[in-house]
């Protein structure tokens, strides 16, 4: 059985990574004796529409063109934050005869005969709608809290003095800057200095290197 892993985190910084998702789904695939055809990793907000998530689109196309048997994701939200988009993705998978496994929900879309159970669409619609409502509630509470904080005289944004000075950056990233001055490629600098590619790109632009 051929499987594809799609892993996504919302943050484009180093605060989040896809390692845990990939490790857990790989273990599941090995346990089920699946052959992992390819692993797709993406750092992009789940609030983006599916068509605006290039790696996700690539993963879906790969599954279709390579006759992949099952798509493995860590949870339903990896397929999108919008209930309608999640259902559209599920429909595409069903139409192509591609199964779906969601680790958090412990749910598999198709049965042994390759057909979705009569409860599968209902369950997915319910889960995705509840998740979307919860996100909207959290967003409302956060915005309400911020507004109350501002009304009481609070100020949002960085605290004064929290932003690093040019001198501090030069000292902290001196090796990065040194490699950039040598003409070392951005990806190689990131690897050599153990920092993210985005950090190197930001420093390169800031110091005109």
UniProtKB/TrEMBL annotation:
Resolvase/invertase-type recombinase catalytic domain residues are: 2-153
Q: Which Gene3D superfamilies match?
A: Homeodomain-like, Resolvase, N-terminal catalytic domain
Write down the superkingdom of origin.
Bacteria
Q: What InterPro entries does the annotation carry?
A: Resolv_N, Resolvase-like_N_sf, Resolvase_HTH_dom, SSR_resolvase
An MF annotation (GO) of this entry: DNA binding
Supply the Pfam families for this chain. HTH_7, Resolvase
Q: What is this protein called?
A: Resolvase domain
């Amino acid at each position: 059985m051929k499987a594809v892993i799609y892993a996504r985190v919302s943050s484009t910084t180093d605060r989040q990574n896809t390692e845990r998702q990939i490790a857990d789904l790989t273990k599941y695939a090995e346990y089920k004796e699946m052959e992992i055809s390819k692993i797709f990793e993406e750092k992009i907000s789940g609030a983006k529409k599916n068509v605006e998530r290039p790696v996700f689109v690539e993963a879906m196309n790969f599954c279709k063109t390579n006759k992949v048997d099952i798509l493995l994701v860590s949870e339903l939200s990896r397929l999108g934050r919008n209930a309608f988009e999640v259902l559209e993705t599920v429909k595409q998978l069903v139409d192509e005869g591609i199964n779906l496994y969601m680790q958090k929900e412990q749910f598999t879309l198709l049965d042994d005969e390759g057909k979705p159970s009569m409860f599968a669409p209902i369950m997915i619609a319910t889960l995705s709608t509840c998740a979307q409502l919860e996100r909207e509630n959290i967003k409302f509470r956060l915005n309400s809290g911020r507004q109350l904080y501002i009304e009481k005289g609070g100020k949002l944004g960085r605290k004064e003095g929290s932003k690093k000075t040019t001198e501090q950056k030069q000292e902290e990233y001196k090796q990065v800057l040194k490699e950039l001055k040598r003409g070392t490629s951005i990806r190689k600098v990131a690897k050599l200095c153990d920092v993210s590619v985005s950090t190197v790109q930001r420093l390169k632009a800031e110091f005109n290197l």
